[in-house]
């Protein structure tokens, strides 16, 4: 039976659970990840380190390490042929067909993702080769066009450059070119600018926004930086300890924050932003260990509003149109 998705949705993640280690006693890294991404928009997935952002994106790409597996949940993806595929049940051959033109990912660290032994042109061209039997000269032209789109100066000459011959910012542009060469319907960008200084970071974010407009992609943008969220995203899903605790449009999330964890994250950003050496220290306490989560709301031990009823399980619910929160209280509008 063909799955129905809400109008305008390209990706619907429902109740995703991922475990690592022994099949008999897996450690659950993702307990309940649910969110939707609207076609042509950018959804930011935010949360502290260890909240499960990268595991979520690897599950979507079918790239979980051998020790990790999907325990339950649906990952419905609407392809350009109008068919919905549940990525949680897709086999390796299905992923090979989908990766590139359907789904594509830009990883955090260009130096560990680029092969030092091959030229950047060959590495970007390799992506095309998997889906396209165009002759070599035509592929080369398309790679050079893509290098021009990501504003690499002297694109034709840089085709034959090796990764170590480029600056960090240029390497990140190469990663973006690689992620976009097949014009994917959905691009997953995992902290693509964290390693870069602020000026280059702003240029890369600007470039991604322009390419998104030109190519009409949907983007899942993974970050722990609320400043980047405000700049890049249309919508936000906030993760805590392996679950989404709030999802809304950016404006709604900033103006009518409903979950105490998100309130804490936002309150911790100084008005003038963070200095280059300052780290976000959001809320007293730390993210609980995966094997030692409380039975009810996982944030309750750190929450100043916690009540005895927070020990009961809580699920993500729509509190107002398009605004979901996993808290039994509703703090929208509270001081
Ligand atoms: N290969 C693995 N084996 C066991 N546990 C893992 C593995 N990869 C991730 N995890 C666990 O899954 C949880 C989520 O990790 P994940 O890397 O997705 O967090 P994150 O939000 O992306 O953090 P960061 O911002 O630091 O990248 C963590 O507790 C982590 O220890």
UniProtKB/TrEMBL annotation:
Domain ABC transporter: 11-266
Protein name in UniProt: ABC transporter ATP-binding protein
Presence of keyword Transport: yes
Top-level lineage group: Bacteria
Family: Belongs to the ABC transporter superfamily.
Keywords: ATP-binding, Cell membrane, Membrane, Nucleotide-binding, Transport
Transmembrane segments annotated in the record for this chain: none
CDD domains: ABC_NikE_OppD_transporters (cd03257)
Location(s), subcellular: Cell inner membrane
SUPFAM superfamilies: P-loop containing nucleoside triphosphate hydrolases
Molecular function in Gene Ontology: ATP binding
Key word NAD present: no
NCBIfam families for this protein: oligo_HPY (TIGR01727)
Pfam families: ABC_tran, oligo_HPY
């Amino acid at each position: 039976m063909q799955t129905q998705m809400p109008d305008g949705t390209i990706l619907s993640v429902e109740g995703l659970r991922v475990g690592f280690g022994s099949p008999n006693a897996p450690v659950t890294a993702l307990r309940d990840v649910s969110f939707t991404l609207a076609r042509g928009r950018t959804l930011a997935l935010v949360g502290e380190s260890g909240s499960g952002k990268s595991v979520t994106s690897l599950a979507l790409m079918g790239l979980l390490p051998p020790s990790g597996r999907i325990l339950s949940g649906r990952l419905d993806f609407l392809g350009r042929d109008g068919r919905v595929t549940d990525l949680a049940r897709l086999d390796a051959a299905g992923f090979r067909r989908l990766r590139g033109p359907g789904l594509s990912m830009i990883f955090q660290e260009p130096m560990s993702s680029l092969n030092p032994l091959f030229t950047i042109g060959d590495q970007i061209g390799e992506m095309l080769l998997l889906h396209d039997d165009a002759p070599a000269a035509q592929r080369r032209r398309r790679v050079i066009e893509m290098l021009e789109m990501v504003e690499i100066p002297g694109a034709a000459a840089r085709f034959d450059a090796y990764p170590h011959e480029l600056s960090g910012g240029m390497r990140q542009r190469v990663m973006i070119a690689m992620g976009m060469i097949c014009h994917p319907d959905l691009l997953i960008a995992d902290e693509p600018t964290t390693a870069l200084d602020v000026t280059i970071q702003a240029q890369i974010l600007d470039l991604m926004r322009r390419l998104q407009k030109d190519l009409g992609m949907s983007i899942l943008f993974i970050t722990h930086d609320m400043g980047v969220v405000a700049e890049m995203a249309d919508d936000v899903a906030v993760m805590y300890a392996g679950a989404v605790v709030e999802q809304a449009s950016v404006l709604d999330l900033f103006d009518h924050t409903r979950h105490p964890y998100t309130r804490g994250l936002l309150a911790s950003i100084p008005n003038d932003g963070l200095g280059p050496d300052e780290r976000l220290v959001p809320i007293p306490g730390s993210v609980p260990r995966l094997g030692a989560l409380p039975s009810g709301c996982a944030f309750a031990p750190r929450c100043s509003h916690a009540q005895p009823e927070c020990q009961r399980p809580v699920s993500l619910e729509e509190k107002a149109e398009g605004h979901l929160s996993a808290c039994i209280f509703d703090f929208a509008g509270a001081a």
